[in-house]
Design goal:
Radius of gyration: 49 Å
Largest sheet: 6 strands, mixed
Number of strands: 10
Low-confidence stretches: 1-44, 450-462
Distance between the termini: 89 Å
Mean pLDDT: 80
Number of helices: 22
């Protein structure tokens, strides 16, 4: 008998085991060849011969060995053991060769080892061992070296990387070696970065140490060496910050934050920095340098601490440019509400100042006595013209689709369901035919249960192959009946849905109708002469115009097509005038921002003059006042002020200026 190969042997063995479970325990034919009731094969209902017939030579050899142990000196039993082992060895040798062809070397080594345990000297085993044995021994050697290198990845990644690089050259297609080599290389690089960081920290080049430390990690976690350096950095910075001056504390907090040190260490350094900043702010407040004190409070607030910023609030209030927007005069003969126009300007400026685009305050009051110059700017204006026009802009004909009626039509869903019913009935017919065929096949197999032998009728139910065929036929019949039941249920469901679905549906009948549409346009325009005074200096004297356009369509109307006679409500002249005033206010707000920025430059000029006469305190106050009185944006002037403050105070202001400290370094 030719031995079975691969998974087929296991499938046959499973069927044999199922057949053995179905065989009645009283069946005499299920006994082993010896007929001994103590035989393991007899107790299980399956003999060694049964396993041999099924191609399961592994189990057959076990059963035959048990039989031979019960009959010492029985040459027939010993021969069965040798035959079964030789066939089992051959089967595993073939599996080893097949696994080797698929490059499954570990599986090939395992199968060859099993084959050698059954019969090391069998010809098939010797041939396979000669062909693939050296390669498998090499693989086992690679496996051992790979395991040793894997242990080195965490303790000595550089040595692991060198060993894995050699393994990679010897086994270029091994994915695990490639993955381990990548991991070892990354860890070796991270360790090297940690070593560079240690050297830089010891040499006092601390910013460079933080840069190296940022890459001394693998998988998002620092290496052990990097973690140890972080603990050293925390200890050094916390100890130094206890008695440090403000510049050193700033650097320590920046290093702790950039290096990602522990929250406990970072918060300790931050609290000491904030305490020193606020103490400096109080000294400046006592000296009357409110704007400079505000910068120290702002710096403390940007660290994340909760601080009192009373000087910052006061400085922004005192240094902000104040626009005194008085009611506009009306030179149009009552067409423009000057009070309403001035209010629109104030509201627009206040709206832009709220989001930081302008450092301005507005008021309807006149400047206080004695405050006729910066930061108080007087805004006056005269409405010189107002025009409101209306007329027809064009006329066109439009075709409007509308529902003229309905009609009955065949329901497409019903047609689709009928197609599904035809297909379901065809599947049901096929399932019934398959069920009938399976039942006939089973009946035929059962009719073969008795045959004629030398002594008359002979029972064949005990034959393993026969019982296996019976079990398979019964399973096929059960599956066929299940498929028939499912097909019948599906056919019934489709018939029920057909009964519930209407045969016809109503469809809309569309038509078109021409409609004449007229486009109307209404325009309002307001012009005003606006003047801004900084004391006796005229900062702005321009004609400003705001306009609003309203368009609408008018038609005879067609209700069936959803077209109203007048789709839009035409705003009256007062509404159009108010909208034009809002547009004028929007245009004027930009000009007022530019004027305020220009007026505030006198603070910048005064600060530069103080710096030239070697008065750093006055210069810092002037620069700080300029930054707080202008919009929080990046401009060349604000960048110059920030650069000067960095040189005077030792730190750039925590504001948006366009100045970067890195440029200074």
């Amino acid at each position: 008998m030719t031995p079975s190969r691969g998974t087929a042997a296991f499938a046959i063995a499973a069927l044999v085991a199922l057949a053995a479970a179905l065989i009645p325990t009283s069946c005499a034919a299920a006994r082993s060849v010896s007929g001994d009731a103590n035989d393991p094969g007899a107790r299980s209902g399956v003999t060694g011969d049964d396993y041999m017939s099924a191609g399961d030579f592994d189990r057959a050899s076990v059963v035959f060995e048990q039989d031979a142990a019960l009959r010492p000196g029985d040459s027939a039993a010993a021969e069965k053991v040798r035959t079964a082992k030789r066939l089992a060895a051959q089967g595993h040798a073939e599996l080893a060769a097949a696994a080797y062809d698929r490059n499954e070397l570990e599986r090939a080594a395992f199968e060859l080892e099993v084959a050698e345990r059954f019969d090391r000297d069998a010809d098939p085993v010797r041939r396979v061992r000669t062909a693939i044995g050296p390669k498998l021994r090499s693989v086992r050697g690679l496996t051992d070296e790979k395991a040793r290198a894997k242990e080195l990845v965490s303790s000595d990644p550089q040595a692991a990387a060198e060993a894995l690089a050699d393994l990679r050259r010897r086994a270029p297609y091994d994915p695990e070696i490639a993955e381990l080599l990548l991991l070892a290389t990354r860890r070796a690089g991270a360790d090297a970065a940690a070593a560079r960081a240690e050297a830089a920290w010891g040499a006092g080049v601390r910013r460079r140490a933080v840069e190296h430390l940022a890459v001394a990690e693998t998988g998002g976690a620092p290496t052990p060496r990097a973690a140890a350096l972080r603990r050293r950095m925390e200890s050094d910075l916390v100890a130094e910050s206890a008695n440090s001056e403000l510049p050193a504390l700033r650097d320590a907090f920046s290093l702790a934050r950039d290096a990602g040190l522990s929250p406990a260490a970072t918060d300790t350094i931050r609290d000491r920095l904030v305490d020193l900043l606020l103490r400096e702010a109080r000294k400046l407040e006592t000296a009357g340098r409110i704007a400079t004190a505000a910068l120290f409070e702002l710096e403390a607030a940007t660290t994340g601490a909760r601080v009192d910023t009373r000087n910052l609030d006061r400085a922004r209030g005192e240094r902000a440019v104040v626009l005194h927007v008085l009611p506009f005069d009306d030179a149009t003969g009552g067409g423009v509400d000057g009070l309403r126009l001035a209010r629109a300007v104030r509201d627009r400026v206040a709206l832009e100042a709220a989001d930081g685009t302008a450092a301005l305050r507005t008021t309807a009051d006149a400047p206080p006595a004695g405050a006729l110059g910066f930061p108080h700017l007087l805004v006056t204006g005269v409405a010189t013209a107002q025009r409101i026009t209306a007329g027809r802009a064009g006329r066109e004909m439009r075709n409007v689709r509308y529902v003229a009626g309905t009609r009955d039509a065949a329901n497409p869903a019903t047609s689709k369901l009928n197609d599904q019913l035809t297909a379901a009935r065809a599947r049901l017919a096929r399932a019934r035919d398959a069920s009938a065929a399976a039942e006939t096949s089973l009946r035929h197999l059962k009719s073969l249960g008795f045959g004629t032998g030398p002594g008359g009728l002979v029972g064949s139910e005990g034959d393993v192959a026969y019982r296996t065929r019976i079990a398979s036929a019964e399973a096929a019949l059960e599956n066929a009946r299940r498929s028939e039941k499912n097909a019948a249920s599906e056919e019934f469901d489709v018939r029920q849905r057909i009964l519930e679905t209407p045969a016809t549906v109503s469809e809309a009948e569309w038509a078109e109708r021409p409609i004449e549409v007229t486009t109307m346009i209404k325009t309002a325009e307001i012009s005003a002469r606006v003047k801004v005074m900084d004391g006796a200096t005229t900062m702005l004297d321009e004609q400003v115009t705001g306009s609003e356009v309203h368009r609408e369509t008018v038609s005879s109307g067609f209700a069936e097509g959803g077209i109203p006679a007048d789709a839009d409500d035409t705003p009256d002249d007062a509404v159009m005038s108010a909208k034009a005033a809002d547009q004028l206010a929007q245009a004027l707000a930009g000009k007022l921002r530019a004027v305020a920025e220009l007026a505030a430059r006198r603070l910048l000029e005064d600060a530069r003059a103080a710096e030239r006469r070697n008065d750093p305190a006055a210069a810092a106050e002037g620069y700080a006042g300029y930054l707080l009185s202008t919009s929080d944006t990046a401009t060349p002037q604000r960048a110059d002020a920030a650069r000067a403050l960095h040189e005077i105070l030792g730190a750039p202001p925590a504001l948006r200026t366009g100045y970067s400290p890195e440029i200074r370094r």
